Amino acid sequence: MTMTANDSSFPRIISDSRLIAGPEPEVQLHLINKHLADIERFSAERTLVMMHGATFSSASLFDVAVAGASFMDVLAQAGYDVWAVDARGYGGSSRPPAMSRAPEDGSPLVTARTAVEDFSAAVDFICRHRDVVSVNVLGMSWGATIAGMFASGASAKVAKLVLVTPLWLSDRPLRIDAGGPLGAYRIVSPRAFEAAWRGAAPEHARRELIPDGWFEAWEKVTLATDPGSPHDGAIRAPSGAVQDVRVHWTAGDPLYDPDDITCPALVLAAEWDADVRFDMAHDLFARLASAPYKRLVEVGQGTHMILMERNRRQAFDAVIGFLDERAHPAS
């Protein structure tokens, strides 16, 4: 369905939500697209494809309108043809049959290797649909794993790479893994998640971290991404990302080599991120040795969910500034 933004205080934005064929016949992938209404020609330099994290889908992370605009709206207002992808098992994409059964009846679903196949299919569709040969890519958290894997294996298709609070190697347990056996999927309550979200900040800053009304707006969108959930007030999230943490990120076995990434790269971290600590982000940044140029930005007074917090505009500005700039030859 196609809609237009009606708020006269912003340029008119075209919003489109669609299903496309996935890499396997039984898989359909949900894409959200936003761009300014007056764009007549689309270019690789102004096309951005985004990938969500381990728990929440693209609408939840990138398209919750607070203070008049979502992250996707701001990117569209900046002149980008911005797309957000749901991997299978998330949001509006196909859910594996095991997600309709009890979680303990199946093994972890949708690891990064599966998700990167879905992301690749989405990029191929977008390139055909817009008649471009490459795109900019942004991944958040576990989605940065997908973005990094894709960029390391398909360098010709990626103009610039943005890794927001990126999952990477850790020498200690990570908060996403509570331990114990893993089922096919996890049952996640946004209300319960709020405590962990705010809890990453110092106690004095927790109330102001998320402005009034923003959490409720985010919760509403998040619950709407899984209308088929049999769990009241909760969504289902595949467990493959947690398995990735156990098998790869806390086991010293990275899923990709950052040195294989040959496009400009931005790593965006947050001061109070308790899920992807700054030492993890810095280690990843240091390994991006083949990038023509790279940048590490740490946003102060923010957590892993920086894109939905009071300091989100600092993150938005860092991303848009990096995407907007032209490469400067060495002098």
UniProtKB/TrEMBL annotation:
InterPro entries: AB_hydrolase_1 (IPR000073), AB_hydrolase_fold (IPR029058), AB_hydrolase_sf (IPR050266). One of its GO terms (cellular component) is membrane. Keywords: Hydrolase. SUPFAM superfamilies: alpha/beta-Hydrolases. Residues 48-166 form the AB hydrolase-1 domain. GO terms for molecular function: hydrolase activity. The keyword Acetylation does not apply. The keyword Hydrolase applies. This is Alpha/beta hydrolase fold. It comes from Bradyrhizobium oligotrophicum S58.
